[in-house]
Input
Amino acid sequence: MGAIRRLGAGLRRDWISAMVVIALIVGWEIAGHMAPRSPLRESPIVPPWEFIFGRALTGLSDYWKIEMWAPVPQLGGAQTLLGAVLALVFHSALTLFRLTVGLVLGGLAGVLLGLALSWSSRVRKLVAPSLHLARMCPLLAMIPLFQFWFGATNWAAIVFVAYGVGVIYLIGTVNAVANVPARYIENARVLGASRLRIHRSIILPAILPELFSSVFLTLGLAWSAVIGAEYIGVESGIGRMVIWSEYFSNTGRMALITLVILAYAMASFALCRKLQERVLAWTPKRPGA
Amino acid sequence: MISITNASCVFRHASGREVRALDRISSTIGDGEFVCLLGRSGHGKSTLLRSLAGLNTLTAGEIAVDGRPVKGPGIDRGMVFQEDTVFPWMTVQANVEFGLLAQGIPAAERQGVAREWLDKVGLGRFGDSWPKELSGGMRKRVAIATAFAGGAPILLMDEPFGPLDYVTRRDLQNLLIDLWRSTGRTIIFVTHDIEEALVLAERALVLRAGRIVDDIRVDLTRPRDEEERASPRGIAISKTILGHLELEQHTPGAA
Output
């Protein structure tokens, strides 16, 4: 609710962007009614809003497959709004779980490995070229390989997300460590700090501001990776719902699920920005921040 | 006691040119002395101080503290840098505690010692502040408190008051003198400012081209206010130092 209220405040503050959003919504609706009529009732070329939040929303109950709380359309049950919400919550929860665990594992592994590599400059110079190679690897092209290794399971999606973000964190960490001002490290050495202590109390906090740019970068990447993994292989999750919609050309459902993913992505960005404010309370105000 | 024996340090520039930053320097500094290292920039003051701290390796010669050769930084030597080295991600209190933390001293004792030093530098109420909330002069006080709290009997200061305004500088000089007198620690203070040396030092080592060209007793009475510095002895010391630094061509034979 707070996010919505803040969104409202933001829109009032910045009426140009508000106008753009309204124009997009209205334009979409007009396009929905102008577009040639599709021969299939469930597949309007451009689904208008009343269709998206009407038939398409109820239709999502097709993806509720547990004989509890709501009828299961697959077994001849009726399409219900409750079923639709349950299906959405169930598959969202799976996707969010994969995303969160993948992000945390990948982030931890990337940062720790990055710190380990930065332990000596010789090691860093040795691995730098292969790091560059890892970053250039097209992530989505590797999904089938990951599924071959880990099966079409939760783990496959998690490991895939973790790998995707881990590489970014690793490179981000190595770069950030190289940018820590020497004076802080010298001061810590003079004060008698061991190498481990310097890594823990000086280098780790000093790289945090720079690391947060990796956080925002990987958040977008993680969303693509997890949806991609579900889209191509894993048999559940919100990405899979898009595939199911595609089987019968349910354009309304595709648009609706895309909107839901957009909402999640925006919420996760807002959450990370909050986290950044808290963790980086010590940083001097940057101009424009 | 610090003994410096034939300390030399040669840097090789990217161009391949060799620079002799320290050229066979020898001297001894007794416990509890306040020594200023004076000289123009690029004449070896900072290199000598960093060598004393163990942050710079000599290419020849040796520096020993109480008979033990300096191999690297050690908790017997603290340092206050010219740059702002207060860790911005730690509160003021945590900054002052850091040296004690690194030495493995238990939390309760750390807190007590840090609070005591914050009081002594006049920042008793700022323990919970972030460094960004403090002025440059206050952050310098934090750096001084941190160096003293670490417990090192020898404190090395590399133009610590350089970037500060005149009045703040005078305040901090007075603070430093008070702390030096009440603790009896050895302070080696790099400066290019003759007035600062006259205010602070018991002894001034003048460096030129990597060599110690003079070792002057600054035997003025304290407080070293304007009158005292303008006394015949004060002016004589100033003139001698100036002669070594830059006015040599105009005062031949001063060395």
